[in-house]
Amino acid sequence: MRLQNKVILVTASTRGIGLAIVKKCAEEGASVYMAARDMERAQQIASTLDGVKCVYNDATKPETFTTMVEDVVLDAGRIDVLVNNFGTSNPGKDLDFAHTDPQVFLDTVNLNLRSVFMASQAAAKHMANHGGSIINISSVGGLVPDISQVAYGTSKAAINYLTKLIAVHEAKHNIRCNAVLPGMTATEAVEKHLSDEFRNLFMRHIPLGRMGLPEEIAEAVCYFASDASAYTTGQILTVSGGFGLATPVYGDFVNKTNRR
Questions:
Q1: Which of 33, 56, 152, 250 is catalytic?
Q2: Model confidence over 79-101: pLDDT tens digits?
Q3: Which of 110, 144, 187, 209 has the most CB atoms at less than 10 Å from its CB?
C-alpha cells in the first residue's frame, strides 16, 4: 500500500493510460479523483472501484483546470499528487512541418501546455503547506523527432522542460515534479489511429520487441507518487521498451536477423 492516505488527482482518466493509473493508485491505498469531461462514464467507472471519486474537467474550458483542483481540496481537504495525463493530437491534421496548418499547430501546443501549466499551478498552491508530487505524462515523441505530429511532439518537448522548471521553482515547498514518457502503448487510441503496418514498423525499433501496457506506465507513476521517490525530482523517465536507445539502423538489422 505505497500510496496509503494520499489524495491523488488524475486528468483524462476514463480510458487507456489514465484509467490504468487510477486503478493502480486505488489498489495502492490512495483516495483517487478522476478528472473527466464525460462525468457519466467517469461515475460508472468510479462506482466499481474503492476509494475513487470524480471531478469535472474539460480541457477546452481553461477554468476547469483550477476548479477541478478546488473540488478535490474541498472534498478531501488536501491534494498530495497531481497526474497530468491529458494530451491531444489530431493525426489527420497534425502532420509534418511543411503540411501542418499553423492554427492546428498553435491550438495543439496551447491545449497540451495549458493543461499541464494551469493544473500544476493550481495544485501547487495547495501543496505548498505540506509538499506534494506533480507527475506529467509526456511522450518519447518529445525526445525523438517523428516524421509527423509536429505539434504534438513540440508540446511534449515543452512539457519535459516545464517539468524541470516546476521541479526547480517549487522545491522550496517540497513539491516534486517528474515526467513519465510512454512509448507505443497498447491503448484504444493506438488501436484506432495506427495501422498494423505502422505498429509493426515501429516495434522493429523497440529493443524489447513489444508495445508497453498501460499498467506498466501506471507503475512508473506510482513510484513518483510514493514516498519511495521523495528525493527524486526533475526527472524525465522513458517507459518505452528501449525505443530511441539504439543506432538508427537497429530496425533494419533486426528485420534481417529476425531478432536472433
A1: 152
A2: 999 999 999 999 899 999 999 99
A3: 187
